[in-house]
Amino acid sequence: RMDDRGAGMSKQRMDPDIYARFYAQADRVRAREDEKSKDSQIKRETVYTPVECVDFINQSVAAILMREFGVSMNDPRVEVLDPFAGTGIFLARAEEAGLIDPTRQSVHQIELVQDSSEISARNVPGVKTHCFDTFALDPRVDLDAMPTVDGDCDG
After folding, report:
1. Confidence (pTM)
2. Distance set, CA 6 to CA 12, 33, 98, 142 (Å)
3. Is residue 132 packed enough to be buried (19+ CB in 10 Å), middle (13-18) or exposed (0-12)?
4. How far is 111 from 122, CA to CA, in rounded Å?
5. Is 151's pLDDT higher than 50?
6. Distance in angstroms (rounded) separating the CA atoms of residues 81 and 59
7. Nearest residue to 59 via CA among 99, 5, 12
8. Which helix (H) or strand (E) holds 132?
9. What is the rounded CA–CA span in Å between residue 64 and residue 51?
């Protein structure tokens, strides 16, 4: 809770107990959710990133790219790589927001888990989806020459 002191460019004072209350509540919720989802998360080997976080990260990358290099994310000269794609939420949301255009630029996603890579390939159809361990990737490899997932992944 914020208290407004004065007018115009006033200083704001934060309720000192707000963080303690927030984290206490978050810890209770996290404990309940952990018990419900721990086993299923381990089995699936995937984690959930809230859409709001995904959008914030995508918008931040776009802003930094424009500020530092003077180009937009969907510029044909920009190559996009999601090295841990999961089910493809980052690139799907970037495409929905008009930040990337897989028809005009090189866009790749890599996912180790077979089920996730197949979902990812369906979620973002114009993106080249690869199924292998990102950490085993030689940085000199040409991703355009690597096999892609088309609804089937050999792992």
Report:
1. 0.62
2. 9, 42, 42, 60
3. middle
4. 13
5. no
6. 16
7. 99
8. none
9. 20
